[in-house]
Amino acid sequence: MDITKLFETEKTVFSFEVFPPKKESGIDTIYQTLEQLTDLKPDFISVTYGAGGSGVANANTIDLCNHIKNHLGIETIAHLSCLYNTKESVDEILDRLKAYGIENILALRGDVNPDYETMHDFSYASDLTAYIMSKQMNFHVSGACYPEVHQEAPDMRTDIMNLKHKVEAGADHLISQLFFDNHAFYDFLEKVRIAGIDVPIEAGIMPVTNKKQIERMVSMCGASIPAKLSKVLQRFGDNPLAMRDAGISYAVNQIVDLVANGVDGIHIYTMNDPYVAKKITESVSSIVTAGK
Ligand code: FAD
């Protein structure tokens, strides 16, 4: 199914993201996690693709997408990054996705990983997007976007112009980087729409359930921490249970505000934690299914 069809209903699209285990030993756990996430009836589950190389995790991306779509009956998006792929390796991946009936790809550039040598067939996600479209294999391509500007972009205007180029290359659905301040997302959305980008944009929500993990994430992606969240981290950061519950509440509050403001969709970075995904879903299910 073409993911963009989901945005044609009155409901707010509600989706999850998981990552494949880095070692074979984690495989059983991810299958259990996916069963639990399926019970929550998301509109789709996307599966990330490792940065660099063609290791276990990347082979598992396709296998997990196959499992989600063909065994669990949930729509899926396979992430695919291009800095470490050649046209030939992308061709092989596209053939495998096609063989499993997987129709949706989140085309990414990927982050630079000093452990691997970059290939030179693709420089940006828009190159990969254009390449996938040129194959005419009926894939639907999604892209990433950055409410607080991608860390390598010189400014918001340039980043949005590059995003427009990605959409013109064929991306017809966008998922945002995580953010904790909804105003940053609303400002970005306004600028993006003025720039003439009119595809559905899902808001990426990361529940903050672990202080160290969020400090690492923020240093990698540059998301700002509003004073309200900073207080939560200071007060509950060293108490795992309190931090988890406060993080779930913070994410729920963000989602309620986003849906009330008419967001196209909510994409939860589940961090493969079905308990947190369940708590959030239970709290917002009547909200996301209420008409827009
Ligand atoms: P691009 O869209 O190519 O943008 C990268 C930078 O280049 C930006 O600064 C942009 O402004 C600039 N740029 C773009 N086009 C041009 C141009 N033509 N000329 C000059 N500058 C240009 N990473 C993974 O490795 N695996 C994953 O599964 C994964 N999933 C993700 C899911 C989401 C929703 C998001 C938001 C990110 C994800 N990432 C993932 C991280 C992503 O790979 C990094 O953020 C990466 O640094 C940028 O990828 P991109 O696809 O957004 O790149």
Element-by-element helix/strand order: EHEHEHEHEHEHEHHHEH
Rg over CA atoms: 18 Å
Helix content: 40-55%
Strand line-up across the major sheet: 1-2-3-4-5-6-7-8
Q: Give the terminus-to-terminus CA distance.
A: 22 Å
Oligomer: single chain
Give a verbal description of the structure.
The mean pLDDT is 94. The protein has an 8-stranded parallel barrel, surrounded by 4 helices. Strand 2 (44-47), helix 2 (56-70) and strand 3 form a beta-alpha-beta unit. It is built from 10 helices and 8 strands. By secondary structure, it is of the alpha/beta class. Helices cover 47% and strands 16% of the residues. The chain has helices at 27-39, 56-70, 87-99, 125-134, 156-169, 182-194, 211-221, 227-236, 240-260, 274-289; strands at 13-18, 44-47, 75-81, 104-108, 140-145, 171-178, 201-205, 265-269.
